[in-house]
Amino acid sequence: MNNGILRNMRPTFFYAFLGLVFMFAAPNVLQLFTIINLTTAIALAVLALSLALIWGYGGILCFGQVAFFGLGAYAYTIAAINFGDTTPAILVAVMITAAFAAALGYFIFFGRVSDVYLGVITLTVTLIFFSLIRRTSGPEYKIGKALLGGFNGVSSPPLNLPWDRSSFLFPEHVFYVAMAALILCYLFVGWLVHTRFGRVCVAIRENELRAELLGYDSRLYKLGIFTIGAGIAAIGGVLFCNGVGRITPDVFSLYNAALTIIWVIVGGRGTLIGPVGATFALFYLTSALGGQSLLNNNLVLGVILIVFVLLVPKGVAPTVTDWVMARRKKAPKRVRRRARPQTERME
Amino acid sequence: MTRQRGDVVVETRGLCMHFGGVRAVDQVDFTLFDRELRCLIGPNGAGKSTFFKCLTGQLTPTAGEVLIRGQDMTGAEPFEVASLGVGIKTQVPNVFDGLTVDENLWVSARRWHDDRRARALVSETIERLRLGDIRKMQLGRLAHGQRQWVELGMVVVAEPWLVLLDEPAAGMTHEETFRTAELIEEINKTSALIVVEHDMQFIRLISRKVTLFHEGGILMEDTMDAISADKRAREVYLGHRA
Ligand SMILES: Nc1ncnc2c1ncn2[C@@H]1O[C@H](COP(=O)(O)OP(=O)(O)OP(=O)(O)O)[C@@H](O)[C@H]1O
Ligand SMILES: [Mg+2]
């Protein structure tokens, strides 16, 4: 069984290896400014990965994946300020977010809420966070030692060494941590989708009634994948705080909620590397566009979304795979055609 | 629990399923014994599928009880019914379109067994149902009859002790229908079955005892020959078919 999973994970290992090469090469080649920027992109890629899991494999179109990302970021920041140590803060962030998602998911899945309403509910939750946290600017809004800071947000303490809370990591080290976290999350998710759990989730995505008629409690599987996805989004949130150095209610904005969906659509549902790659690509596209004033950022993203929905509906990664497969299928035919005259001659 | 031929495996008491004013199933008392093979017939809209959905947890009956092996399953979820070891095929084909034939069967077998055993069972079933040529194909690309066949495979691969099939031969070719009848006979060696069917020829191939539904209730319960001979039964059903 394990051999089977490892064999199926070959492409996953390949991309993880590429990531590893990038992780050690980038700081030697790129400037510090770029490296710091990259950390933010990596955080967003982890967020995309989490939606790629629950939407692409679980079939759950969660419109509020940023809610878990932002919740993780806030929980990390507040916990880190209070503890004076970031290592337990990471754990707290992931656990609070997963617990919140489990509670929300319990009502959604055990209440058998339909897919459309699931989207509406998750988006609403996100926007509630957005407007609630924006209103927390006064000095009375604090959790322990941490002021919430309203729309200005809170500045996040940088990561410290797990064994020494007084030595903080430099930005280039944070980059290593972020990249390692992305690779580990990617390997974990890549493994998960090949386990029994992951494959049953895909079956439920394909036909929920059929899965139930085979004896699987679809509610439990959906709740499970939803919660795991939220935990991974929280890890992205923690990295995001470290890339940007601050967390503001803007993470919960409609713009960011939509952007997450766009990454997965462009990269391709049902793959993991697609959405991760698309996040980097679009992150650099928007930063490049940020430097000019000719084209509006949102307009460009809107156009990209429309182009993909209409022309590349499966997304980049599945389309490329299909194309390669089609070419591979053709290849043996060519060989056969060439071989045939020879055999005739031999006869 | 030891199984004996005389045990009651499915029982309904006063089962009703009303949709507003429509009495799709009305006061049905039904009994199925272990290893029995029962056909449900009846004209369109007689309530066969609705009855079937009440048995499999797809619908919660308005009134009455469903007992499976003596356990009260009224209003249970479909996965709870299936988890008793019941194999179910619905009237509308329900398969995993994006997965291959292999994967479809694997998901079914893996519910009960570890990966190695599941894969062995899948290979066995593929051979038994002669799906070898298409085992790597996605279900979405298969013809209707093949999809039906794979769905039957998903039922068989799990080795259920009770099998419920709603129109298993619908849309199949003559040869496929014949093979389905053979398969059902084979399943019946180890399991009890309820088969909803329209196809008279098919029913004559497999039937022992037939339950005739009419307007939500059971009109008759007898052998096919006796039903064919009955005047009332011919009026409601056979008159315009056989
Ligand atoms: N969800 C529903 N809502 C309202 N009425 C329904 C519903 N499902 C079934 N009915 C009605 O209940 C009656 C029985 O339908 P059912 O599908 O059980 O018939 P059937 O015997 O399976 O017919 P067929 O041979 O065509 O499959 C029909 O009159 C149908 O219109
Ligand atoms: Mg029917």
Write the layout of secondary structure elements.
The complex is a heterodimer of chains A (347) and B (242).
Chain A: H1 2-8, H2 10-29, H3 32-57, H4 65-83, H5 86-110, H6 115-134, E1 142-143, E2 146-147, E3 154-155, E4 160-161, E5 164-168, H7 171-192, H8 196-206, H9 208-213, H10 218-244, E6 246-247, H11 254-267, H12 273-290, H13 297-311, H14 316-346
Antiparallel strand pairs in A: 1-2, 3-6, 4-5
Helix pairs in contact in A: 2-7, 3-7, 3-10, 3-11, 3-12, 4-5, 4-6, 4-10, 5-10, 7-10, 8-10, 11-12, 11-13
Chain B: E1 8-19, E2 22-33, E3 37-41, H1 48-55, E4 63-68, E5 71-72, H2 78-82, E6 86-89, H3 101-110, H4 115-128, H5 144-157, E7 162-166, H6 174-187, E8 192-196, H7 200-206, E9 209-214, E10 217-222, H8 224-229, H9 231-236
Helix pairs in contact in B: 3-4, 3-5, 6-7
The structure holds adenosine-5'-triphosphate (ATP) and magnesium ion.
The pLDDT mean of chain B sits at 90
What distance separates the N and C termini of chain B?
Answer: 43 Å
Instruction: State the major sheet of chain A.
Output: 2 strands, antiparallel
Count the helices of chain B. How many? 9
Helix content of chain A: over 70%
Beta-strand fraction estimate of chain A: under 5%
Strand order of the largest sheet of chain B: 6-7-8-3-9-10
> Which strand order do you get reading across the main beta sheet of chain A?
1-2
Number of helices in the DSSP assignment of chain A: 14
The CATH architecture of the largest domain in chain B can be given as 3-Layer(aba) Sandwich
Nearest-integer average pLDDT of chain A: 90
Largest interface: A-B, 20 and 27 residues
CATH superfamily of the largest domain in chain B: P-loop containing nucleotide triphosphate hydrolases
> Which CATH top level class of the largest domain in chain A fits?
Mainly Alpha
Q: List the domain count of chain B as a whole number.
A: 2
The gross shape of chain B turns out to be: globular
Uncertain runs of chain B:
none
- Note the run of SSEs of chain B as H and E: EEEHEEHEHHHEHEHEEHH
Helix coverage percent of chain B: 25-40%
